[in-house]
Structure formats: C-alpha cells, structure tokens
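Technical note accompanying the year-one report. For the benefit of new consortium partners, we illustrate the data format agreed upon in the data management plan: each record pairs a sequence with a structure-token string. No post-processing was applied to the example shown here.
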Amino acid sequence: MRGPLAPAHVPIAKSRGERFDDLVLDAVDRLKPRWGTQLASVEFAVEEVPPASELMDGPARLASEPIPLGRAESAAGDDPAAVVLYRRPLEARARDRDQLGTLVFDVVVEQVASLLGLTPETIDPGYDDRH
C-alpha cells in the first residue's frame, strides 16, 4: 500500500497585473534584436491609470484618444528615460488577450518611437500594416 499522495505543485495563477506586465516585457523583447542598444538604459513600467494631469478636459476630450495609453519620458538628471503603459485603459480597449497583446505592442512601439524621435514604422516596419 502506498502512502498519501503529495499535493500537486500547481503554479499559483498569475494576477491580471502580472499577465499584463508579461505582455509589456514580451513587447520589449520583440524590439530588442533591432533596438537593444537604444533600449538598454530605458526603464519600462506599468501604472494602473494615467495621472490626472494627463487627462484632457474640455473640447480636446472629444479627440479620438482622450485617455492616454502610455507615455515616454526622456532621461533627466539621474532619472533614466522611461516608457510607461497604463494597464486599465489598454484592457478596456481590448476584446480579448490577443488584441490586448497587439495593443500593448503598438503602444510600446509608439512610445519608444517618441522617445527616440522616430516614427513607429521605423521602430516596427509591421506597425503600418496594423493601422
């Protein structure tokens, strides 16, 4: 007779935030073969929502993208350059995980392009095909 079975080691399920972080890291990894040198000193971060200072009010709010999906910050003093993605606005625009992955990648491409002073199509030649 065998002894009691050991509990199965099931990995703890990832939270939504952790899964989103993985999508951002995957997007950055896709750019590294071509842009690794330029991205080496850039920090990538996720915030739940944009700060109130980035939300538009008045007539500008009627624009197609009133809520920002991300931002790029140039290096300043001891602070490195950074790309920040806003999780909740991106999740709200995606109908499924595949679309969310595509949106995250596009926003990373757009913010890296802004940071480097280039077009999104230069950062990712496939960008134009998705837009």
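Partners are asked to follow this layout when depositing records. The longest strand covers residues 43-47.
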